[in-house]
Amino acid sequence: MTEPAFQDQYPDDVSHCFGCGRLNDHGHQLKSRWDGDETVAWFRPEPYHTATPGFVYGGLIASLVDCHGTATAAAASHRAEGRPMGPDETLRFVTASLHVDFLRPTPLGGPLQVRGQVETLTARKAVVAVSVIADGTVCARGRVVAVRMPETMGATAGPAARIMEDAGS
Ligand SMILES: CCCCCCCCCC(=O)SCCNC(=O)CCNC(=O)[C@H](O)C(C)(C)COP(=O)(O)OP(=O)(O)OC[C@H]1O[C@@H](n2cnc3c(N)ncnc32)[C@H](O)[C@@H]1OP(=O)(O)O
């Protein structure tokens, strides 16, 4: 049986992210999992994710790197602390820094493989290297600095809660 994706184990109150939130019907709903010591996600861009005809928009690629990086940080933290992920347990990470190098045009039409590798991990911070691969060719490389989510970014923090309520989520 396939293991549940990291993002599917996030608590409801942090599951509205445009890149990976399972409760965001308009988002990408990226799903990341372990593959040995690395992490992997697959995403198939749609024709409306076009940059120039036939090629994927860079902002989409950046958001895949972003959400796969923060999810990898959360999962690696759980693994390091010996705590399984789960709705009451998820260690929460947000993006402090997102760097992406677009090495070559990313073809539109097939699935993209997104691979993550933890470079450094402390209790508060992870640095994750991410590759975006199309048909065996690395098209983009990124690096995410993910930091434990501050209380001020929680779902009950002011306007965020009201916006999600208004959206019916
Ligand atoms: C389960 C939860 C899932 C959540 C949904 C998925 C997340 C989706 C990904 C996103 O898009 S999140 C949205 C975009 N990110 C933000 O809006 C974050 C806004 N920034 C902040 O709230 C704060 O700046 C942040 C929490 C990131 C850091 O503030 P802190 O006061 O906690 O950081 P601090 O200055 O104490 O630094 C902690 C460590 O991070 C490092 N750091 C902080 N900002 C950095 C930066 N910009 N670049 C590189 N490193 C940075 C800093 O050097 C330090 O490293 P060391 O521990 O090694 O000393």
Automatic annotation (TrEMBL):
GO terms for biological process: fatty acid metabolic process. This is Acyl-coenzyme A thioesterase THEM4. It is an enzyme of class 3 (hydrolase). It catalyses: (5Z,8Z,11Z,14Z)-eicosatetraenoyl-CoA + H2O = (5Z,8Z,11Z,14Z)-eicosatetraenoate + CoA + H(+); tetradecanoyl-CoA + H2O = tetradecanoate + CoA + H(+); (9Z)-octadecenoyl-CoA + H2O = (9Z)-octadecenoate + CoA + H(+); hexadecanoyl-CoA + H2O = hexadecanoate + CoA + H(+). Gene3D superfamilies: Hotdog Thioesterase (3.10.129.10). It is found in: Cell projection, Ruffle membrane; Cytoplasm; Membrane. Belongs to the THEM4/THEM5 thioesterase family. It comes from the Bacteria. The keyword Glycosyltransferase does not apply. GO terms for cellular component: cytoplasm; membrane. Residues 54-137 form the Thioesterase domain. It comes from Roseospira goensis. It is a peripheral membrane protein. InterPro entries: HotDog_dom_sf, THEM4/THEM5_acyl-CoA_thioest, Thioestr_dom. Its EC number is 3.1.2.2. CDD domains: PaaI_thioesterase. GO terms for molecular function: thiolester hydrolase activity. Keywords: Apoptosis, Cell membrane, Cell projection, Cytoplasm, Fatty acid metabolism, Hydrolase, Lipid metabolism, Membrane, Transit peptide.
